[in-house]
Request: fold
Amino acid sequence: MNINRLIGVFVAVVLGVVSPAMAQEVGDEQLAEQRDTTAVKRDVDSLAVKKSDPVHAVRTLGLVSVIDTLPTENEALRIVLFNDNTWRYVLSENYKQDSTVFSDHWNVESTHAYTDVETASLPEAVAIRLVDSLKSYHYPFLGKITSRYGPRRGRPHQGLDMSLKVGDPVYATFDGKVRISKLAGNYGNLVVIRHNNGLETYYAHLSERSVSAGDWVVAGQQIGLGGSTGRSSGPHLHFEVRYRGQSFDPERIIDFSTGDLRREVLLLKRRHFSIYSKFEQDFDDEIEAEKQEEAERKAAEAIKYHTIRSGDTLGALARKYGTTVKRICQLNGIKSTTILRIGKRLRVR
Ligand SMILES: [Zn+2]
Reply:
């Protein structure tokens, strides 16, 4: 299938006119995905979360590279075409360019980018939308957990270890941009990805890295192969999740027994950054878990978006939604002087 034919299919898909012949070429699985994403495009403004259903992993992408990106009728979405004839909806670069996620504390040299951020300076609790309605998520690897987050032999173990065989594929957890890809001391071969949701994920002890700093990656894309480089006593993946440099128990977001993302919205509390704060403790404490669940549901319901129309100003939006310009800027990682483009979606609450 040549590239023009591919684009024809994709454009047809966007317009919702897919002939059976085309359908066969694209594949049933992908068609199902297209139907879903058509709904996604319609619903992109109504991201209300009813309850915290787990999010299943997307289809795995192998060692792919991007051959082209295409606009869609929705300014926020682009279609990315890969060299293995697969494709994916992603947030458009335009949409991301006003966000400070990929510029604030962006550092491709230092393993940890937020060294000057004090835990005490972080909010008491923050609601993080892990995935938007594209539900772009994939587990990094699924294997026997050999060591959990928490203190270990007097040292903080800031991630989770899963045993693997050297050469097993390791996948990007969410869409994002590679910040670090290097040999990094105890971590061995390390890949760090910063995601649209503001989190960073760390993949350590790899035998091979297949991405470089600055590469845009999507969930489920292979970023390297498992190994035993660095401070490691045998082949395993050391996986960390960090928010503004602070690690927390990866089991808070991923159920490693199923590979599912536990929830779409995570209510991350400052106390979760303690090395002693483990997901299973909350889980054991039913009342605490229920409270957390309820708080997460409320946090998800409270999140509200506004699509910029002609004449909108940050001041007017702040009044309309009973908030402040400062808060809207914080929520979206923009400056008060950022030009509001019509059609851009802003989180207002
Ligand atoms: Zn480890």
